Amino acid sequence: MKLALLALRNLARNRRRTAISLAVVATGTAALLLTAGFVAFSFEGLSEAMIHGGLGHLEIARQSATEGRTATLERSVADGLDDWQALQQQVEALPGVLAAAPTLHVAGMASTAAGRSAAFLGVAGDPVRERRMGFTVKVRQGVEMADAPPREGEDQVLLTQGLAQTLGVGPGDRMTLLAVDPDGMLNALDVTVAGLITTGVQELDTRYLRLHLHSAQRLLGTASASNLLVTLDRTSRTDEALHRLRGVLAGHQPPLAVVPWTERAPFYRQVRALYRGIFWFLGSIVFALVVLATSNTLAMAVMERVRELGTLRALGTSIGQVAGLVGLEALWLGLIGGVLGDLLGAALIVALNWLNISMAPPPGAVDPIELRVLFVPEAFVGTILLMLAVLALAAVGPVLRVARLRIVEALAHT
Q1: CA 252 to CA 40: how far, in whole Å?
Q2: What pTM value is reported for the model?
Q3: From CA 214, how far away is CA 155, in angstroms rounded?
Q4: For residues 59 and 72, is the Cβ–Cβ distance under 8 A?
Q5: How many helices (H) and strands (E) are present in the chain, helices listed first?
Q6: Which candidate among 111, 126, 145, 375 keeps its CA 20 to 30 Å from the CA of 284?
Q7: How far apart are CA 213 and CA 207, in angstroms?
């Protein structure tokens, strides 16, 4: 304890040098906290946006429909769920499940009275359950679809802005959807454009549309659903619900697959891997800068105190105690600098979030994203431990130099 207090007092002897070292450590700590907070926000924001944008936490579909095809829009009605209503009741009775919404996927051609046509990818669902699940639809013009199943001749559709521009239609206009049913017959359905929406992805906005489940079933001449999307009360319960559902549905015929949202969102895995790489790259730079700056400071402190350290050795202080004194000075720098960095990082996080900064849309997206930085408690503790390790590493050179000091040469040092 006395050695630790002596090391702390030694730092106060050269306040300017100590202040510079603390500034380097604190700045590095704050930089890591900001990076960790931004990465955490990006992961959380992207995952919740994808889950509540239409993926759900889990998907229930025929095993034959999921083999080798993880993308939701690749589900075929030919491999659909005929007993989806019974499955829906069974799933919604489980704890933690908000709702299980049926969806029906349809692909075909959309045409207008003016002679314009375009290929489309359609997703049909139940608006009531989707609202309960927290699914969001970004309506840019017009209104959302009615909750009640439409009567024949009153079918509505939500078009993405790119597809509406291609067809030259807007809210209130009529158009015709053409699609092939499971028996290979070409069916047609006249619909009214209720509103224009965006998916947030430019490429998908040129082909995507939404229907009510009953409208899509009428178009395809089927009562089946392509799959069931399950949303939970918390994303953290996904693995627990996944294992429970697989156990409940194990004996179903034909066999069913329960697919977590992460397997149907390869984009999320790619972004996560990219951001992790960026975080480790920045962390490595901060690590190198702090080691170089602080090791130089500690080396200078040893050089300026050679005679002092030699005197301590002459008075009977062991090599271990003298070397420990230098090492403890380094650890004090890491601890104090880490705490100051945590305070600086917290202040910067509050300031950045208060400014409500918006960033340009990422590649392929249409909406700007808000810059937010999350508080990550593990990062606040981890950065202090990291800085202690960094300063311990930086002290290796100076400590070895002290260990090699000879008393006679140290006392004669000028």
Answers
A1: 39
A2: 0.71
A3: 9
A4: yes
A5: 14, 12
A6: 375
A7: 18
